[in-house]
Amino acid sequence: MKARTDVLVDVQGLVKVQGRLPALRGVDLQLGRGAFVALLGPNGSGKSTLLRLLAGLARPDAGSIRIGGWQLPDELAAVRPHVGYVGHETLLYAHLGARENLRFCARLYALDEPEPRIDDMLRRVGLERRAQEPVRHFSRGMQQRLAIARALLIDPALLLLDEPFDGLDSEGREMLLHLLHSGRERSILMATHRHSLAEGLADRALFLRQGLVAGELSLADHVPGALAARQAELTESP
Amino acid sequence: MLRNFLRAALTIAGKDLRAELRSRELLGLMALFALLAILVFSFALELDRPGRQDAVNGVLWVTLLFASILGHNRSAALEREHGGFDALLLAPVARGAIFAGKLLANALFTLIIALLLLPLLTVLYNLPQFPPALLLIVPSGCLGLAAIGTLLAAITVQTRARDSLLPVLLLPVALPLLVTALRASNAALGNLPEAELQTWILLLLLVDLIYLAAGFLLFETVLES
After folding, report:
1. Calpha distance B202→A28 (Å, rounded)
2. CB contact, 8 Å: A75 with chain B?
3. Which of B32, B83, B151, B186 could form a disulfide with B191 if both were Cys (CB 3.0 to 4.6 A apart)?
4. Which positions in chain B touch A90 (Cβ < 8 Å)?
5. Chain A nearest CA to B199, separation (Å)
C-alpha cells in the first residue's frame, strides 16, 4: 500500500447513477486497517453498487475513493492486487475444475509458488477431495465456498463481501465464520441482511438507505438485537 | 512489462482452450454449422465444374464469417456466465492483455474450423490444386475476424439482444476484411492476375492491423463501461 495510515478506505461524497436513477447519492465512508464493517440496508439501498465501485468494477459519477492512499479510478492498477471481492456471481469458470479455477486466479495475480496456498485454501473451504471436479458439477453452496477461496487466495488487504453467506449450508457458514475470524488483520466490508452474523463478526455497522448513509452503530459491545432495533429506528424516521 | 502482458494473455488464452477441451461446446457448434453450410451451398448453387471453382472462395469466407459469429457469441457468453468478465477486470493485468488472450483463443478456434473446411471444399468444389498462398491468407483472415469479433462480442454480450446483435454489428464492420480476403484468395487460386496477389495480401494485413488497433484501444472502455 502507498501510505501507511490507519485509514485504508476513504470515500467522500460518492455518487453513482444507474440508468436515470441515482444508486448512490453522496456516500461518505472510512474503513480502518483491520476493521470489519457490516453494510446493512434494504434491497436497492446501494450496498452492492458501493462494493462494486470499491472493487473497481464500476466508475463513480462523482466523489472520491482512496484505497491505501491510491485514488480510484486513476490508480486502480495499483489497488487491484490488494482487493478481494465476493459478489452475487461466483466469478468461476464452470468447465474448469476447482483447482484449475484457483490456479487461473493465481496466474492472473502472478502469485509466487501458488500450489501450497491453493492446497491450503481448498482444504480450508472443504473442497480438497473434489479439487479436480469441474465446477459445473458443484452445488450452489460448493461454488460459493470456492468463490470465497478465490477471493482469499490472493491474501487481500481489503476484502469486499456481498452477501457471502448466501447459498451456504450450516457447515459452510461455520467455515466462512472461521475464515473471517482468522484473518482479522485485513479490512473487511460486508453487505448482508443477516443481523445475527453481522453482530457476531463486525466492529461497526453502516446503514444505507436510498443511496445515502442513514446511520451507523458500533458493535463492540455485542448487544444481541441492537442492529435490528437500530434499523427499525432508521426505517421509521422520515 | 511486456513479459507480464504476454504471461497474462497466454494465461487467459490457455484458460479458454482448456475449458473448450473439456466442453467442446464452441468448436463443436462452429464445426457443425460450417459443415452444414458448405453442404447447403453445394446443393443450392447447383454449379457446373468451373462455376464451383469460381464460387469456392465465397463459400469459404462466408461460412467462416458466420461460423466465427457463432463462436464469438458463445465464447463471450461463456465468459459472462458466473461473472467471468468481472473476474478478469478485478485482476491486476493490462486490459489489452485480456483482449489479446481472448483474441488468441478465438483466432485459434476460427483457424481450426478453416483447416477443417479447406480439404472438404477442395473435394466438394473440385479445386484442382491447393495454392500455398492460402496458408498466409486464411490465418490472416481468421486473425482479423477474431480481432473484430472479440471486440464486438464484448459489447453485445452486455446487452439483452446479445444473440442477434453481434451479426448485425459484425457483418458491416467485417466487410473490408471479407472483400480483401476474398480478393486475395481469388488471386491465389488464379482467378485474378497474379500481380494482384501481393497487393490484396498486403491490404488484408492492413485491415488486420486496423482491427487489432481498434481492439486494443477500445477493449478497456468496452469492458469497463
Report:
1. 56
2. no
3. B186
4. 82-83
5. 41
